[in-house]
Amino acid sequence: MANYDCIVIGGGHNGLVTAAYLAREGKRVCVLERRHLLGGCACSEALWPGYKVSTAAYVISLMLPEVIADLRLRHHGLTILRRNPSSFTPLLDGRSLTMGPDEEATRQQISQFSSTDATAYPRYQKLLENVAAVIEPMLMKRAPQVVPLPKEWRSRSLPERLRQTRELWSLYQALGHLGNDLPEAVELITGAARPLLERWFESEVLRATLATDAIIGAFSSISAPGTAYVLLHHVMGRATGQRGVWGYVQGGMGGLADALEATCKELHVEIVRECEVHKILVEGGRVRGVAVDGGRTITASSVASSIDANWTYRRLVDEKELPAEFLQAISRIDYSSASAKINLALGEAPCFQNTSGNSIGPEHQGTIHISPTLDYIEKAYADARQGRPSEEPVLEVTIPTSLDSTIAPEGKHLMSIFVQYAPYQLQQENWDDIKEGFADRCIELLGRYAPNLPGAVEHRQVLSPLDLENTFRLTGGNIFQGAMNPHQLYCFRPVAGWADHRSPVKGLYLCGAASHPGGGVMGACGRNAAAAILQDL
């Protein structure tokens, strides 16, 4: 096969973003995707006749507006449907908390439970938005090296050191803009979600609603350091046109992949589906290409991997090509995971108490939280720590058909249930044996709040952590390609010394969520990686 300037391993959204930015600069690029469809975790599948299911990822906000504009994604069909309201938390006594971008409506909802909290919430939101405004520009750039490294690890050119000095100075100045918010900003970036939320609010339903944002995709207690940072992710992003307002991709999450594919084709990127990379070829310390199915070899000046660091460096590269200390650091990456995904096709919408019934109403449009108290979340985590799925799990439920009529037959609905905690490592059982029973338990739990739900289920798909690993090549089933803990973020992602997307093998790069700035459908990893590759090419 032809020689390329860059081969991209994996056709997830970050891989396609990398390919598109390289092709914009006239580079010859080939994307190799193992599966039959593009998008990675941000894909849509026709699991049942008439349905387009967002199999894994299910909402969008973090996608960089710069990426959307640069790659003309809206021109190529990307349509994002804003959710308003954005959050609904039902309680067993019939009460509920609905929240969204309408500040006055949210204040009135919170005041049902606490007038003090209704006053405090706008100040809390303002704090998060101020910190997010400082953090977001950091996502747009390669992470600078802020810790000293042994000289034998890697050499850096004088221009590169000067660039990093400038970026560190920019970060220092940006943090200065926080003023009196700086101490709380430090807590948000490094601290635990529970003490922060308990200090701000007194009503359990509000605390718990916000706390679920801190543990999505993480195998962590809300009392664990680092969980507060994930709270910031839910006020970041401007893909919908308004900061922190999340939406659905029309046509399912695969609509993003479709738009990226159209851009890539317009830029003459070659995309090959059902083509698995078995080895990254290295000669004399420099990448030479890849070996794929059937023993074929494809040559390239550079290779960008959008799969995780474990797969890239420990499975696809011969270990003799990498320094021992680098491999040791890679082997220590935390891939702890406790997430499962259940996709349901419904004959009718769920009917929650004291709401609009099974007709589509405001309660169906946003994320439905099944987690009434902080202690409920802690107990769910405690079960998982013992190596068993939560007896009463935390459920984050979305119904995209509330806004998108293109993804299901008329009168039918799709429901996505993201489940915490479902530990990858089980103490006694096997996920293949218990996943259907666990899904039954989740549906029964949701049925306590919406009694018609169990009877409305017509089709279902259950993805255990093991299924997520096998389907999407996610080590340990971790949806972020590595836990989003403080020691695995920014200049420490994937490991200290290699946060600029490069690797000890010249010409080999990471361009997926395993690299800075990490997980989430944002495209920043792919964009930043492309900048590093272009600089080297």
Please, could you describe this protein's structure?
The protein has 537 residues and is of the alpha/beta class. It is 36% helix and 17% strand. The chain is built from 18 helices and 18 strands. Strands 1, 2, 9, 10, 11, 12 and 18 form a 7-stranded mixed sheet that branches. Strand 1, helix 1 and strand 2 (29-32) form a beta-alpha-beta unit. Helix 1 (13-24) packs parallel to helix 10. It is globular. The chain starts with a strand and ends with a helix.
What is the average per-residue confidence, as pLDDT, rounded to a whole number?
A: 92
Give the count of helical stretches: 18
Structural class: alpha/beta
Largest sheet: 7 strands, mixed
- DSSP, total strands: 18
Q: Could you give the distance between the termini?
A: 21 Å
Report the radius of gyration as a whole number of Å: 23 Å
Low-confidence stretches: none
What amount of the residues lies in strands? Answer: 15-25%
Helix content: 25-40%
> How would the global form be characterised?
globular
